[in-house]
């Protein structure tokens, strides 16, 4: 019986789709913001600011020590968080995996960032990673969302509002531009991003959310 279980398990692990699913989760879970802030600024962003591992908190926390370095690390965190899911997606695309498998990889990359296996299933808010995988899967909708984000970032200057507004606009745009597609993966990613922003939403309601300056 144990031999049979072992063989089934090995067959499962040798499945190409499963290997990419695992890779998406593990790569997506890499906490670049935490690593960069510790390495180059000597600060632990998990114990400061919003305690998130994303670019906004890197910028906020490191800025207290070195404003110039904060911008560099914030940009690096944003880029790496956006790219990490795309790397797995691009590889899977060239291997010839199906669109359904690509969507599953996109979802798992976002889950990895938001519930990192390296941080006890804690993680970031998922915006950069979400936009990264969406840029690959739904480029036009993502461009629209980024325009919405840029307008919000310049005018409102509250990161959570601009991010969530952009995420919502991406979802709406996907239904308008691609009414024929199965929207479940997009809805699921949007749900995760909003779920991770619940503390921000509560602070917004209470008028306590901090502006980005």
In short:
The chain is mainly α and 213 residues long.
Structural account:
With 213 residues, this protein is mostly helical. The chain is built from 11 helices and no strands. α2 (16-28) runs parallel beside α6 (99-114), α6 (99-114) packs parallel to α10 and α7 (127-137) runs antiparallel to α8. The mean pLDDT is 87.
Radius of gyration: 18 Å
Helix share, percent: over 70%
Q: Which sheet architecture does the biggest sheet show? A: none
Beta-strand percent range: under 5%
The tally of structural domains comes to 1
| Order of H and E elements | HHHHHHHHHHH
Please give the alpha-carbon distance between the first and last residues.
62 Å
Task: List its salient traits.
213 residues; mainly alpha; 11 helices; 0% strand; Glycerol-3-phosphate acyltransferase; G3P_acylTferase_PlsY; transferase
Task: Please give the structural blueprint.
Elements: H1 2-13, H2 16-28, H3 32-41, H4 55-63, H5 67-95, H6 99-114, H7 127-137, H8 139-155, H9 159-177, H10 184-196, H11 198-206
Helix pairs in contact: 2-5, 2-6, 3-4, 3-5, 4-5, 5-6, 5-7, 6-7, 6-10, 7-8, 8-9, 9-10
């Amino acid at each position: 019986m144990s031999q049979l279980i072992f063989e089934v398990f090995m067959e499962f692990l040798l499945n190409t789709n499963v290997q990419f699913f695992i890779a998406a989760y593990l790569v997506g879970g890499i906490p670049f913001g935490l690593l960069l802030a510790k390495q180059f600024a000597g600060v632990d962003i998990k114990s400061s600011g919003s305690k998130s591992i994303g670019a906004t908190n890197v910028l906020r926390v490191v800025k207290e020590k070195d404003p110039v370095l904060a911008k560099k690390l914030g940009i690096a965190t944003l880029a790496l968080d956006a790219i990490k899911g795309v790397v797995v997606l691009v590889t899977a695309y060239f291997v010839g995996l199906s669109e359904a498998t690509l969507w599953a990889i996109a979802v798992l990359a976002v889950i990895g960032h938001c519930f990192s296996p390296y941080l006890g299933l804690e993680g970031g808010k998922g915006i950069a990673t979400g936009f990264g995988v969406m840029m690959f899967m739904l480029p036009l909708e993502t461009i629209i969302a980024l325009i919405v984000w840029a307008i919000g970032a310049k005018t409102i200057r509250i990161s959570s509002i601009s991010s969530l507004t952009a995420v919502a606009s991406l979802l709406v745009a996907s239904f308008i531009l691609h009414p024929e597609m199965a929207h479940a993966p997009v809805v699921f990613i949007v749900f995760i991003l909003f779920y991770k922003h619940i503390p921000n939403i509560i602070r917004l309601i209470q008028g306590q959310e901090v502006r980005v300056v």
